[in-house]
Amino acid sequence: MGETQNRPFQLSFNSSLKVDFQGSRVTSDGGLVLVRELDERLRLSELVDRHLSDSRRGKNIQLPLADLLRQSIYSRLAGYKDVNDAERLSQDPTFRLIGSRKIWERGAALTSRLQSFETEVLTQTDNLAGPAALNRELVARVEAIDSHGRIVLDMDSIEIPVYGQQEQREVVFRADAAFAKPELYEALEERDVKYAIRLPANDNLQRNIPELLTRPVGRPSHKPVVRFKSFLYQAASWKRVRRVVAKVEFHCGELFPRVGFIVTNLAASSRAVVRFYNKRGTAEQWIKEGKQAVAMTLSCHRFRANEVRLRLSLIAYNLGNLWRRLALPAPIGKWSLTSLQQRLVKTGGRLIKHARYYWLLLAESHLTRRLFGSMLRRIAMLPSPAG
């Protein structure tokens, strides 16, 4: 009976074709080895040792914390929504090889072990702040080797606290009208943070721009006619006067103009303020892809466990975004995380073990040999992070 079960399947439409299942030797997530190479360059294991403590005893310590953390964040980065997939992924060649030598042969964590790691080990008082601290330091290491002169904080309907103080950085806050609150303006001003926040249009604001609302004379232009104005304004709920930038657009075929207002403490021109705020649309897509691509599901009953799982998803998102930022060539550098999952992470491969080496033979589709080599070289050329 056992021999019959292990025989390959014969298909009637092609007598020369046989089908077999070799789950422990075949993977569908071969592209993750590139992310693993990047996390090695950024010394993720060192951050795990620094920010997570291990109070486990006995057989529970057979799998190192670094292996468990990687399995948690890499499964999210590959699009697996919860730990129920761990049973199958434990024997997947990619998930075995991204861990330490201990799990190359025995396999990664099963569902019960990974569940215990996320909902018990990481929710302990000594570890609760660990994932957030690890995430901050991981991003800080990249900022140290690939720094930009400005940090823009975009806020969407999910509030995510921002920690730390960056030296020699201009921090700018950008948000839609849902965050048009005087308490928020005051908090940002107290911290000397620049901001650009959309204001809901109202009659009081429009009374300051009557000249912009007059329709252009003559034949309507096929291109939108856009006008800007900056003025000082104080709403009834505000304790002080603030700068407001107005933008009015007349579009061919539309009866009324499109009117928008932005409250800001930026010193740039009105056109520049609007151009800066409009980039929020791109950032909103990044926020949305984070919610979708790394499966930000909070399926636990306890708040602490959900908090940990959200932070694991954020680490997965940041690691994927750092892969895109640091390793991808320019022609594909703007791919979404979903595209990276479908085209690069989801690469089939077969594991072959020899006496001295493991060979992972990858299918060549979107992830070509040339592209794989290009990303490896980019990762190898990254400066070693300090600290």
Count of alpha and pi helical runs:
16
Lateral strand order in the biggest sheet: 4-5-6-9-8-7
Mean pLDDT: 85
Largest β sheet strand count, sense and barrel closure: 6 strands, mixed
Could you give the order of the helices and strands? HEEEHHHHHHHHEEHEHEEEHHHHEEH
| Strand segment tally | 11
Structural class of the helix and strand makeup? alpha+beta
Total count of domains: 2
Task: List low-pLDDT spans.
Answer: 158-168
C-alpha end-to-end distance: 58 Å
Shape: elongated
Radius of gyration: 26 Å
Q: What is the percentage of strand-forming residues?
A: 15-25%
Please provide a written account of the structure.
This protein has 2 domains: 21-132 and 297-380, no CATH class; 172-278, no CATH class. It is α+β, with helices and mostly antiparallel strands and 387 residues long. The protein has helices at 2-6, 32-41, 44-51, 65-77, 86-89, 93-97, 102-106, 111-121, 130-145, 182-190, 203-206, 270-278, 280-293, 303-327, 337-345, 369-380, and strands at 9-10, 18-19, 26-27, 150-155, 170-175, 194-199, 225-233, 242-250, 258-264, 349-353, 358-362. Helix content is 41%, strand content 15%. It has 16 helices and 11 strands. The strands form 3 sheets. Strands 4-5-6-9-8-7 form a 6-stranded mixed sheet, sandwiched between helices. Strands 3-10-11 form a 3-stranded antiparallel sheet, with no helix packed on it.
List the helices and strands and how they pair.
Elements: H1 2-6, E1 9-10, E2 18-19, E3 26-27, H2 32-41, H3 44-51, H4 65-77, H5 86-89, H6 93-97, H7 102-106, H8 111-121, H9 130-145, E4 150-155, E5 170-175, H10 182-190, E6 194-199, H11 203-206, E7 225-233, E8 242-250, E9 258-264, H12 270-278, H13 280-293, H14 303-327, H15 337-345, E10 349-353, E11 358-362, H16 369-380
Parallel strand pairs: 4-5, 5-6
Antiparallel strand pairs: 1-2, 3-10, 6-9, 7-8, 8-9, 10-11
Helix pairs in contact: 2-14, 2-16, 3-9, 4-14, 9-14
